[in-house]
Amino acid sequence: MALLDRHSFEATSNSEEQTLRLGARLGSMLPSHCVVALQGEMGAGKTAFARGLGEGWGTSQPLRSPSFTLIQKHSRPQDSAVLYHVDLQRIESASDLASIGLRDLLEEEEVIVLIEWPERAEALLPPNALHIRIRSISETKRQFMFSAKNDQAWKVLIAFRKAAFGV
Ligand SMILES: Nc1ncnc2c1ncn2[C@@H]1O[C@H](COP(=O)(O)OP(=O)(O)OP(=O)(O)O)[C@@H](O)[C@H]1O
Ligand SMILES: [Mg+2]
Q1: Span 24-32, mean pLDDT?
Q2: 19 in ligand 1 pocket by Cβ < 6 Å?
Q3: How many CB atoms lie within 10 A of CB 105?
Q4: Ligand at shortest distance from the CA of 48
Q5: Which residues have CB less than 5 Å away from ligand 2 (the ion)?
Q6: For residue 101, what are the domain limits?
Q7: Which of 39, 59, 100, 110 is the most buried (most CB within 10 A)?
Q8: pLDDT at position 67, please?
Q9: pTM (global) more than 0.85
Q10: Which among 3, 2, 7 is positioned nearest to 150, based on CA atoms?
Q11: For the domain that residue 158 is a member of, what is the CATH number?
């Protein structure tokens, strides 16, 4: 765990299992309205982290790589909360993006929106999004950078850091 500037920190994962656990920890403590922007190259571990996050949040169905639908809606048994899992990998243009209705979805209240390949919709991301970037260091090692652009998001990340790493 390394502290970078005021609004970011890094952490290392040494296995897929550890990435799942990190995701689960964050998922268990997300506020009811939140955007999570999950960036990383192919095979970095975005979907692994997303799967953990879904588990921690309590989804009834596991999060998977979306195949045909770019947006998958998830619920959980204990309440009527909603988590959208969005994968923008196949988005190639502004009109592609407009056609999937992400803008409307981001305006919904009281939902969690988890976005893989968020750089394809950068202008739509709200200032309180949690930014996570995963970099592949070796076959099994991944470096995570967690960052926030405002204090609201940073508070969430600090609480997560404390819960996951004790600092
Ligand atoms: N520390 C680690 N954390 C996460 N995944 C890991 C780790 N070490 C190895 N892996 C492997 O890396 C792969 C990550 O795949 P995953 O589908 O999560 O990536 P992705 O970023 O969603 O890729 P894509 O953009 O192609 O969908 C898996 O095969 C997983 O087993
Ligand atoms: Mg994926």
Answers
A1: 97
A2: yes
A3: 18
A4: 1
A5: 46-47, 65
A6: 2-165
A7: 59
A8: 66
A9: yes
A10: 7
A11: 3.40.50.300
AA letter at 15:
S
CB of 46 closer than 8 Å to CB of 64: no
Edge-to-edge strands, sheet with 8-13: 2-3, 8-13, 142-148, 130-136, 34-40, 111-116, 82-87, 71-75
**Ligand 2 centroid to 144 CA: how many Å?**
15
Cα 79 versus chain centre, distance: 21
Question: How many domains does one find in the chain?
Answer: 1
Cα-to-centroid distance, 47 and ligand 1 (Å):
7
Q: How confident is the model at residue 123 (pLDDT cuts 50, 70, 90)?
A: very high
Q: Choose the residue to mutate in 12, 16, 53, 136 for probing ligand 1, maximizing ligand atoms within 8 Å of C-beta.
A: 16
Q: Which of 51, 92, 96 is nearest to 74 (CA)?
A: 51
Cβ–ligand 1 contact at 46 (below 6 Å): yes
State whether the beta carbon of 13 lies less than 6 angstroms from ligand 1.
yes
Q: Tell me, in angstroms, the distance from the centre of ligand 2 to residue 114's CA.
A: 12
Specify the residue with its C-alpha closest to ligand 1, atom 25.
Answer: 42
What is the DSSP code string of 81-125? -EEEEEE-TT--SHHHHHHTTHHHHHH-SSEEEEEESGGGGGGGS
